[in-house]
Design the sequence.
């Protein structure tokens, strides 16, 4: 016989009320488990979306930083092109100057041009090419019936990393084909 202080657990098989209470508790636990699993799945989805958003943000910032560096480089290159033109003219027209001075200026010019080329600057090879308004600026034209070609290059054109920063100033000729 149980003592007065001890609680007696009813046998669910013998007590239908206890069996019904156990089923209610199991149903509540099952419902709570479903709710918790749904919350877990929603949090996992949210975490994946946040990771994807962060990765997209990181890539966008990297693209923007790269574009900013390229834009600043392009601005500097555009400012240096007239200096390069004048330097090239000076080297081509040295004439009868001292051979050591001539060689020194040629070396400095070559070094300057090499530095710009290592940073993505490339000359537009226009002479004899088919006229392309994206790369050439026509300032003179001969009459004719053929395809327009570059006859003379009046000012060198330049590209920076594949993008035209200054079109070649050219004379266009039309040779009958």
Sequence:
């Amino acid at each position: 016989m149980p003592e007065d202080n001890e609680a007696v657990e009813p046998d669910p098989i013998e007590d239908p009320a206890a069996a019904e209470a156990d089923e209610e508790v199991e149903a509540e636990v099952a419902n709570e488990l479903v709710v918790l699993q749904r919350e877990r799945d929603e949090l996992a989805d949210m975490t994946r979306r946040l990771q994807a958003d962060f990765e997209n943000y990181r890539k966008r910032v990297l693209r923007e930083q790269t574009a900013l560096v390229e834009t600043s480089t392009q601005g500097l290159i555009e400012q240096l092109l007239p200096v390069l033109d004048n330097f090239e003219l000076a080297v081509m027209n040295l004439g009868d100057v001292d051979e050591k001075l001539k060689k020194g200026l040629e070396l400095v010019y070559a070094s300057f041009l090499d530095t710009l080329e290592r940073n993505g600057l490339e000359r537009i090879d226009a002479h004899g090419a088919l006229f392309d308004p994206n790369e050439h600026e026509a300032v003179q034209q001969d009459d004719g019936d053929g395809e327009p070609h570059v006859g003379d290059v009046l000012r060198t054109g330049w590209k920076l990393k594949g993008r035209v920063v200054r079109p070649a100033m050219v004379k266009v000729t039309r040779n009958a084909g």
Remarks:
- Residues 16-92 form the longest helix (77 residues).
- The helical segments are 16-92, 99-118.
- The chain has one domain: 16-175.
- Strands lie at 121-124, 136-141, 147-155, 157-160, 163-166, 168-175.
